[in-house]
Amino acid sequence: MINSEVAFAFERIADLLEITGSDRFRVNSYRRASRSVRDTTEDLAAVAAEGRLAKLPGIGKSIAAKIEQFVETGHIEQLDALSAQLPEGLPGLLDIPGLGPKKVALVHKELGVGSLADLKEVVADSRLEQLPGFGKASAKKVADGIAMLENSAGRTPLGVALPIAQEIAEFLGRLNSVRRIASAGSLRRGAETVGDIDLVCDSDEGEAVVAAFTQLPGVIRVLGSGATKGSITIQGPAGSEVRAQLRVVPGESFGSAIQYFTGSKEHNVRLRELAIKKGWKLNEWGLYDGDKQLAGDKEEGIYTELGLPFPPPELREDRAEFAANFDPANLITVEDIRGDLHMHTVASDGKNTIEEMALAGIERGYAFIAICDHSKSSTIANGLSIDRMEQHIADIRKVDSQIEGIKILVGCECDILSDGTLDYPDELLAECDWVVASCHAAMSGGKVPPTERTILAIENPNVCVIGHPTGRLINRRSPMKIDMAKVVEAAARTGTALEINSSWQRLDLKDLHVRQSLEAGVTLSINTDAHRCAGLAGIGYGVTTARRGGASAKSVLNTWPLEKLVSWVQKKRSEGVSHGNCT
Ligand code: DGT
Ligand code: CA
Ligand code: ZN
């Protein structure tokens, strides 16, 4: 599908038009077109072939013509022309958090900045903060953004890499010469970001498979190509470039190659030591006793021969998987999830109604969901005033009474304010069946620091769970300065859950925090924070993170039957744990 490439091209045209000072109306028409293309489930090339492009929402005649141009030539002339007008390094600056098109235009025009190097210079010598329209705070934001970008050094979020890997595997899997294909590396281990996508393929025709790999649609660069190995970069969303490697091996080595390239390196080193202790040899071609191959065709065979339980890839980090008491049997799976307890609707900043979210929950086989729209202080997210929330509660109860097959809990995502108070009064929170409390503002400061603020929320008897506890956005925003040990202790003491927010941009709690929470006896809740029906499908990222932290279903409250969940909420409320009577 070319949809994401076209959506990206329109987004970039809008950015460049904005940098060059084009009018709002024109800029917005491209942004709208980009969103429309991104939301289209049909293949644009097919829609173009049938002459239906202009029927898509937000796509007029002239934009339709540009899509046709892209279908035919892989380019949009206007984008090429705009890019030629500006320094080559300028559009790249738009990827820096804290720097939008207006500011990029400003630094270009006023300070002659045309590249990242230029920008770093004007940050360093304070010219940026002196520029009218910037100031110290904005300049600091830009400096942080640059540091963030450089730290993430080309690592791709799991949620971006996984669909690309799946698409490549599907594409190559259709070749007649390919018997098996699977992903390996950090991607298969479910790491939050990946350096590159690793794929392993079982085939006797390496050259042909590698050739197909290097000619995939969307390939930007071919870094290497041979009879058994190919290395490329491929187009990701929003102009990103994602690295991918393919290794082609014969069938008898497919399992051992998967094992080897899944890693981690540390896991492999330990495993090889175990093989050596037995007088054997282990490498990507197989497990050998002298010249005799003991295992290699199937990955499981390697572990079986070495007398080890099969370790789920998520745990292969040499953290706990080699311990004598290691038992992967109870690790949580997506099938264990009975409901999703954090999602938004059109009442705040979601795209679907209560009813639509409920039907989507039924489709996933859920027994319950909680509708958790934003509270009043989240004005940019259209948070609900107390009056609107009262009405919303009635609306949720009504839909719940009308829909069979799923329990719709009345919930809210209540802001934890910068002074440590909650955005809704206790009486309103008590009317809800389920309360998520989250920090959305003053993440780097506030009257009450983030740790204390979070603990105050935890100590409120009405708060069931802390949403996205550290507030980080992977590759975009650092976590709040939060003392996780203290937060975990307070959660354990009060019987408050911590959320694993499954959005791949967040994965918050992250794997190590999950382990820390479990060790302290904290109950977890894995939620999607979905803003549309399709978002519910993202639960897998949260479950993967939970698995990496070693979580079993019993520690995750949305795997429980509804009655158990409800009495868990009741318990905290009736014990009246509050700030006042806790030390
Ligand atoms: P990444 O791509 O940085 O997110 O992390 P990985 O784990 O995917 O690492 P990558 O892509 O460099 O290599 C894939 C796997 O191949 C790695 O997890 C283990 C294996 N591997 C690579 N180099 C070595 C090595 O020097 N020794 C051992 N034992 N294994 C290696
Ligand atoms: Ca990798
Ligand atoms: Zn939130």
Keywords, separated by commas or semicolons:
583 residues, disordered C terminus, TIM Barrel, alpha/beta, binds 2'-deoxyguanosine-5'-triphosphate, five-stranded mixed sheet, 17 strands, 3 domains, single chain
Concise overview:
The chain is an alpha/beta fold and 583 residues long. It has helices at 3-19, 24-39, 44-49, 61-73, 77-85, 101-111, 116-124, 127-130, 135-152, 158-173, 185-188, 206-214, 254-262, 265-277, 299-305, 354-363, 386-402, 426-431, 450-458, 484-494, 511-519, 539-548, 562-575; strands at residues 156-157, 178-184, 193-194, 197-203, 219-225, 229-235, 241-249, 281-283, 286-289, 292-295, 339-343, 368-374, 407-415, 434-438, 465-466, 497-501, 524-527.
Question: Which of globular, elongated, flat, extended, rod-shaped describes the shape?
Answer: globular
Q: What's the average pLDDT?
A: 92
Number of strands: 17
Alpha carbon gap, first and last residue = 58 Å
Strand order across the largest sheet: 11-12-13-14-15-16-17
CATH class call of the largest domain? Alpha Beta
* CATH architectural category of the largest domain: Alpha-Beta Barrel
Per the CATH scheme, the topology name of the largest domain is: TIM Barrel
